[in-house]
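Lab manual, section 2.4: Encoding a predicted structure.

Procedure: take the sequence of the chain (118 residues), apply the prediction step described in section 2.3, and record the output as structure tokens. A sample record is shown.
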Amino acid sequence: MLELSQNRELPIIPNKRYFTISEASELCAVKPHVLRYWEQEFEQLANIKRRGNRRYYQRHDVLMIRQIRSLLYEHGFTVGGARLRLSAGDADDVNGQTKQVIRQMLAELEDVLVILRS
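Recorded output:
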């Protein structure tokens, strides 16, 4: 799961319904071809294809991508190990994702407060 310090390194997820593959790639600091590969490897990661077979991701998908990235790049899991970790801890992941969303919302509210005070 992404810790607060790791979450600060990645950009804040905008309040949008859908993200293109390039937007998701930038938000998660991985290349688009890596996302396409992860779609094949992780059943939890499902995009929506629309207009001309273009990939779109929802907010929960972006959070899942960040979690996969954290497991692979920061915690040293293999793809198989990360897949097992995600499938074994689905209930924990939901709670962890909820906590991550709350942390991000708090960070965004703090930014708004700074703007309002200035």
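Check your result against the sample. Helices lie at 4-9, 21-28, 32-41, 59-74, 79-88, 90-117.
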